[in-house]
Every structure is written in structure tokens, then in C-alpha cells.
Amino acid sequence: MTLSSSSRGAADAVRAAVALALVYTIAVLTAPGQWLDDEVFGLVQKVGVGPVGEWLPFLARTVLPGVLVVALLVVAGLAVLRRQWAAVGAAAALVLVSVPVSRLLREWLPRPEHGYSYVENTLPSTHVTLVVAAAVAIVVVWPTRRPGWLAPLLWAVVGLACAGNVVGYAHRPSDVVASVLLVAMVAAAATAACARVRVRGGRDPLP
Fold first, then answer.
1. For a Cys staple, 33 with which of 4, 27, 141, 199, CB 3.0–4.6 Å?
2. What's the pLDDT tens digit per position in 162-207?
3. What are the sequence ranges of the domains in the chain?
4. 98: which residues sit within 8 A by CB, 6+ positions away?
């Protein structure tokens, strides 16, 4: 990592933050945005017919968060044995910042009533935020050379988490998109911070 890595990370964090703000502004604050979100919400429910509608939400909201957290703890434990402290700290910070911020945003952000679906604000999804943050943290803290199957597997898990939180009416489509963007913002900010630590300390803090 170099100072340019810090600049790129900061720029990526800003882009993710802007995208998150746009999703909220359009999908939550405006009537056309709420209408579109509601239309997509209804279309997605057609996927959840029969057994899929039963197991997919359970998988996304009950199984995957726990599995990802356990997997992260195991991988982080291996990284601790290798004394990869910076990677462990970055992975922990990613989860410990993303999830509380997701919860606070959902509680604090207002949702005007435009007549579409339920009135409570549900953006972003804390369940999806946890899964995405844990998945990214696993990549960050992986103690050895990352295998080729790791990224596709984690992308598939994130996809299932997003789909399962929409199927079954737990969250709107915009909620899960916002969760992914929130984690992207935090991860990019962490990248920028780590790059600055490397410049000041004279070594790369991440593997």
C-alpha cells in the first residue's frame, strides 16, 4: 500500500457514501422511488413461492449470519496465531463499525408516508450488513494466500443473504442495496486508514 492507495480508498469511500445517500434519497424520500422499490419488492416475492419462500428467508436471516461470524472467528484465530495483528484489527473494525452504524441509520433515518408498503423505515438491513461485513472481513483476515474459490463462495453467500431478506417481506430491495454500499464505504475507509498507517510506519499493515 502507498499514499496513492490511501487516496484511492478515500475516494472509494466517498463514492460509496454518495451512492448510499442517493439510494436513500430516491428510494425512501421520493414517491416515485418508493413506488419503484415497492414494484421490485412485489416482483421478488414471486421467487419465494412454495418451499423457497420458507427456507430462503430462514437461511438468510438465521443461518448465514451465524455461519459467517463463526467462519470469521476461525479465520481470525488462525491469523492471530500468525501474529497478523493489523489484519485482525481491520477485520474486527469492519464488522464492529458497519453493524452498529447500520442499526443506527435504520432507527434514525425518516421515511415519509407516500402510500407504498409499510411505513417504517427498514433501510439498511442489519442482517445483510452483518453478512456482507463478515464476508469482507474474512477476505481481509485470511491468513494465507486466498484460494480461488473464496471470492465466488462469499459472493454467493452475499447474494443469498440479499435475496432471502427481501423474499418473505423482511426488507425492501433498497434496504439490502444500502447495506452493501454501507459495508463498501466502511471497507474503503479502512483501506485508506491502513494505507496512511503504512506510510507513517514504513511498512504494510495488511497482508
1. 27
2. 999 999 889 999 999 999 999 999 999 988 777 666 545 444 445 5
3. 3-201
4. 129, 130, 132, 133, 182, 183, 186
